[in-house]
Write a structure and sequence with these properties.
Layout lengths: L2 H30 L1 E2 L2 E2 H5 L12 H9 L3 H30 L2 H28 L10 H9 L14 H7 L12
Antiparallel strand pairs: 1-2
Length: about 180
C-alpha cells in the first residue's frame, strides 16, 4: 500500500477503532455497574473523581489487564487523539519521499507543535494551574461589589429587574437624550 492510501485510511481507521474501544468500555461499565473501583453514579457525576489528570498511560494499561471499562474508554480517547498525529507523521513521510521541501517543513512544524501541545505543555499548565474557588462569591467578589457601591446582601440572590440594576449601579443610569 502506498503512503497516500495509508493517509486516506488513517483517519477512518483511527475513528472506528476509537469508537469501538469507547463503546466496549461503556458496555463494560453498564454490565458491571461501574469501573475502576467507582460506582456508575460516581462516574456519571459532574464532579467525578475519574478524569484525565488521574488516568495516565500506566493506569490505563494496568486497567486493561483487568478489562476495566474506564480504561477502555480512556484508551479510545488516546487513540482518537493519536489519529491526527499519525496522519501528520504519514504526511511527513510522503513529502520526504517526494522531496517536497516546503510541505515537508510545514508538516514537520505542525507535527512538532502537536507533540509539544500534548507532551510538554500539560505538565507546565497543570503545575501553574490555580485552584478553582469553591465559593463563587468569595472575598474577592464581595470586595469588587463593595468597590462598585453595591449594598451587601444576606447571601441570597434577588430577582433582578432593570430598575434595580440602575439603582445599584448609579454609573449605568442613562443620561437624558438631547432634544433634536
Amino acid at each position: 500500500m502506498d503512503v497516500s492510501r495509508a493517509i486516506s485510511y488513517s483517519l477512518i481507521i483511527g475513528v472506528l477503532v476509537s469508537a469501538s474501544l469507547m463503546a466496549a468500555g461503556s458496555a463494560m461499565l453498564f454490565a458491571r455497574g461501574g469501573g475502576d473501583g467507582y460506582a456508575l453514579s460516581q462516574l456519571a457525576s459532574p464532579s467525578s473523581p475519574v478524569n484525565s489528570g488521574r488516568m495516565g498511560i500506566r493506569e490505563v494499561l494496568a486497567g486493561l489487564a483487568s478489562l476495566d471499562g474506564v480504561s477502555l474508554i480512556f484508551l479510545g480517547i488516546m487513540v482518537l487523539i493519536a489519529t491526527p498525529i499519525v496522519r501528520v507523521l504519514l504526511l511527513v513521510v510522503q513529502f520526504a519521499g517526494e522531496r517536497n521541501r516546503l510541505y515537508l517543513a510545514l508538516s514537520a512544524i505542525v507535527l512538532v507543535n502537536m507533540l509539544i501541545a500534548i507532551l510538554v505543555l500539560p505538565p507546565i499548565v497543570h503545575r501553574r494551574a490555580r485552584p478553582i474557588l469553591s465559593d463563587p462569591l468569595g472575598a474577592r467578589a464581595r470586595a469588587g461589589r463593595r468597590a462598585l457601591g453595591v449594598p451587601a446582601g444576606r447571601g441570597r440572590v434577588a430577582r433582578t429587574s432593570r430598575r434595580s440594576i440602575f439603582r445599584d449601579f448609579p454609573r449605568l443610569r442613562r443620561a437624558p437624550l438631547p432634544n433634536r
